Amino acid sequence: MFLVRLAVRNLTRNKKRTLIVAMIIAFGIVFFVMFNSLVLGLERSYFDNVIDFESGHLQLVDDDYWPRQDELPLHNLITLDEQLQQNLSQVPNLKSYSPQIRFSANINNGLDELPITAVGVDGERKKEVFKLEEHLIAGELFTADQSGAVLGSSLAELMGFELGDYLLLVFTTAEGVFNTLEVEIVGVVNTPNPKVNDKQVYIPYQKASGALNTEDKATEIVMRLESDTSIMEAKEFIKNNIVAEIDKYAVYSWRDSAQDVVAMTEVQDIENRIITSLFLLIAAIGIINVIILAALERIKEIGMMKAMGMKEWQIIKIFMIEGLGIGVIGSIIGSLMGGVGVYWLVNYGLDLIEPDFGLPVVERTYGVWNLSAFIFVIAFTLIVSLVASIFPAYWAVCKEPVDALGGVN
Amino acid sequence: MGYLPVIAVRNLSRHKLRTLISIIAIALVVAIVVVARGHIVGYLESTYDSYINYDTGHVKIINQEFEGRERLMSLNYPVAGFAQDGISKMKEELAEVDEVKYILPRIKFGGAVSQEDELTNVMGWGLNIEQEIAAIDFDQQLKAGRMPLADSEEIIMGQQLLERLELAVGEEITILYNTAIGSFQGSSFEIVGALETGLGLIDGNVFILDLSQAQQMLNMSDEATELLLIGADRNRTDSLVMEMDELFGSFEAATEYSIIPWNAPGKIIDYFKIGERIYNIIYIFFILMGSIILINTMLMIVRDRTREIGVMLALGLKSREIWRLFLLEGIFMGIIGSFIGIILGGVVTKVFSIHGIDYGEAMEVLSDDLLLETVAYTDFSLENLIFSFLLGVVIVTIACIIPARRAAELEPSEALRD
Amino acid sequence: MGLLKLEEVEKIYRQGEIEVSALGGVSLEVEQGEFTSVAGPSGSGKTTLLNMVGCLDQPTNGEVYLEGEGISKLDKDQLALLRRENLGFIFQGYNLIPVLTVYENIELALKLLADRNNKDIKEQVMKILTAVGLGEMADRKPNELSGGQKQRVAIARALVKEPKIVLADEPTANLDSKTSIDVLEVMVEMNQKLETTFIFSTHDPLVMESAKRIIKLKDGEIIADERS
Ligand SMILES: Nc1ncnc2c1ncn2[C@@H]1O[C@H](COP(=O)(O)OP(=O)(O)OP(=O)(O)O)[C@@H](O)[C@H]1O
Ligand SMILES: [Mg+2]
Prior knowledge:
The structure holds three protein chains of three kinds.
Chain A (H helix, E strand, L loop, with lengths): L1 H12 L1 H41 L2 E5 L15 E2 L2 H8 L4 E15 L4 E9 L1 H7 L6 E4 L9 E4 H7 L6 E7 L5 E12 L4 H6 E5 H8 L4 E2 L1 E6 L5 H13 L5 E5 H4 L1 H39 L1 H9 L4 H37 L22 H28 L2 H4 L5
Parallel strand pairs in A: 4-9, 6-8
Antiparallel strand pairs in A: 1-11, 1-12, 2-10, 3-4, 3-7, 3-11, 5-8, 6-9, 7-8
Chain B lengths: L2 H10 L3 H41 L2 E5 L23 H9 L4 E16 L2 E10 L1 H8 L5 E4 L8 E5 H6 L7 E7 L5 E12 L4 H4 L2 E5 H7 L8 E6 L5 H13 L7 E5 L6 H37 L1 H10 L3 H37 L1 E2 L5 H4 L7 E2 L5 H27 L3 H5 L2
Chain C lengths: L3 E12 L2 E13 L4 E5 L6 H8 L7 E6 L2 E2 L5 H11 E4 L11 H10 L6 H14 L15 H14 L4 E5 L7 H18 L2 E6 L2 H5 L3 E6 L2 E7 L1
Parallel strand pairs in C: 3-8, 3-9, 6-7, 7-8
Antiparallel strand pairs in C: 1-2, 1-4, 4-5, 9-10
Helix pairs in contact in C: 3-4, 3-5, 4-5, 5-6
The complex binds adenosine-5'-triphosphate (ATP) and magnesium ion (MG).
């Protein structure tokens, strides 16, 4: 292709200028892919936190309970009867399930009292659904028939509790009567989920049930699947087989429980796109500028080309290929640099959240490889560079050599 | 040396399109800086204000044992005067200090509202209403009703909390709490107002009553859980802290108190401050990118005018003057571009300073624990416009040194060769 | 002591490995008020020689003396000052600063000199403009003038500060022969009136003839130095 060869030659005429504008593009790409990688990384750890410690993969709840669950009410509960157990055992890819009862309580150390969320869980099952056991820093999880409490490390520290101490829970039962429960602390966990660390106390399910007078009922049944790819399938199955029979039940995936987190990462994603667009907008002006400067320099050359019989659109094409060429160079540099940046994020991570800011993660954040981010931003870049070069290219061919020399005597 | 600016200005209009594009580029990056900075400064300022007003004051005085355990909202670690002789006396001493403008004793305690079979946890704040109004315009946050009267059984409540409890202004409510001596009590109050601060943590959890009323019912006469000090300006906190250290040092028993400035290291505000500094670097980076476009153009201009530079050199202009000539041309483009930029950016920030950007749900994760507003209002201020304008002009000027030096380095005989 | 003296001036241009000797040991003296032309074929070193005399470039070897002072010891800024005070230049084309009017172009040369008040400047500029026959065109921009007019402005600008030497590198090369003669006449007239020393290069025999002294160059050497 003659035109392409000409355009490439032209680009190398003023290498510095080409490179400088390509660098702007490259910065835009680097920023986008790294930010994207980090957001996805954050998202993944948020989501892992939600799945591993809060909601499992799926939750079976009462439909009236769901919207009010933040208030931790004790009505609209769910009964895990024989029938339900049987049905649940048929859910495809189900690894484990566990009923739990969450309720609001005050924890008391004899001196101070603090509102927390208490969770009655089946110790054995809990192990399979949630990843508490791996994060024990002292003691152990209670078994089904045991008594005992497991609590978050920062809560324990705040209240001055140690393993073997007795903690007092103050709460109201389902009928609104005050009740207390004294339990020995058998385990302390330090998880990546600050909610668990700060304000969660786990006690055995039966004990909670008895104290709350909830007759073995659960606020929800949490389920863990073999893998998170089969969530939709399992959810459909439950919908069709369980919810269909008991109308007031509903099934929700972890994504439904993490609405606010999803909203947060969406905003971050939008922010990323806006900032990257601004980079590319500047790059577009840079490209327009380069093409205009090149056209001004070559105004006589263009006249000559026209005289030689080259068609206008061919000249436009040369300039557009030049613009695209800058885009390609920028994309290559940007992808390479961005690749290195993402590699670094994936392997070394970033200490984003030093103090506990209430974000749903406390760990170092690692990036995630996302090829589609690269493809997206490169495609976007190339389109922008092509579009940016149309206008000045058109301007250049319409310009007569005399006009172009205006201002010089 | 009046002729250099004249030549520089006239040179601008020689290739209007070329000049225009450079100016647009500068205008765009400066506008981006105005908006971005307006957004960030606006958000940070409102966050700083929220923290200062509702959490830290300019300086917070608490019981040393309470430090780091504020979450407990315990009444066991009160501020009770320099020699346990009450805060009234302490306030008198504090009022003597030059830097102190307002002294705000507060009691923050936990409570619960029992409705039918449900218990809702709430947070009670006992405040000296009059002083709070004077210091932080607290009455401005009132959405409905009025502030509670002193020594009355009246409270105001966060709007969201009211909705959650399905209560309205004018109704009665019973709140359960533990007193300082550990007895479990309940009191009835009349709700006389609804509070809307835009901060989920307060609007959804807090009720406010008069301080002396709180002291009386909690068995904390002449005590508070914290004492906030507000000075004339938050930037003078350092001297406020110094005077406090001095004052507290003169009392023996006073070592049991911690003096915590609002921007103490390790606190969230400190991290915001670091963020602010990082953003400043990003602004510079953006303007540099715009400057690159200008540098490209200027380099071409220098090449175009080589002959002319030669003539000027022959006329006896020094390299330094040639340098200045091109720098001036760049600076003019920087000034025009930055000016257009702040006008564009100013319009956008003005719009968002009125309407705000609603982060809505996205902020909810954080607003449970932090004093963050869900609607971000951009800061529209002259300070921001001037800062962005100067940043634009200064960076463009620095960037133009490159092409200007290229021009100044030309040898006369080289420049004159055709 | 003469006004201008060149002593064994050599100029060697280096282009990578290749060395081009543009001037090979030229010695020469010029007296106050002389009207001299430098002639020679293309590439013979005329421009190079004028650049040396005009302090636009430094010789590789040898020395140029202006009123007995050697210039090789001067730095860039001192050379610039020397030029602004003692030398006037006229070039082939691109002589004027395009964004300044005729008046301003000439004024600039004066403004560069220290301590002159505006009234004096205005008087001087108008006097010289009238002298070159362009009194009417003071407010025009260079691109509104013909080639001959432009060169006259250039002459006016070179002369307005009453320099010791005016150097003109092919001042008529872009002009037709009629206009060339006109421009040359202005130069001769100024030479006589103000006793300004003129040195100009040309390869046009007609133009060459009007000079009282003709220095002929070939391959960077003086091959003839004739006074008529
Ligand atoms: N900057 C330079 N680099 C290399 N060689 C040069 C340079 N300037 C001049 N020359 C060489 O020096 C020699 C003399 O050049 P000069 O320009 O003085 O000739 P001239 O007599 O003015 O010619 P013309 O009549 O074409 O203007 C030539 O051979 C030229 O190629
Ligand atoms: Mg020549």
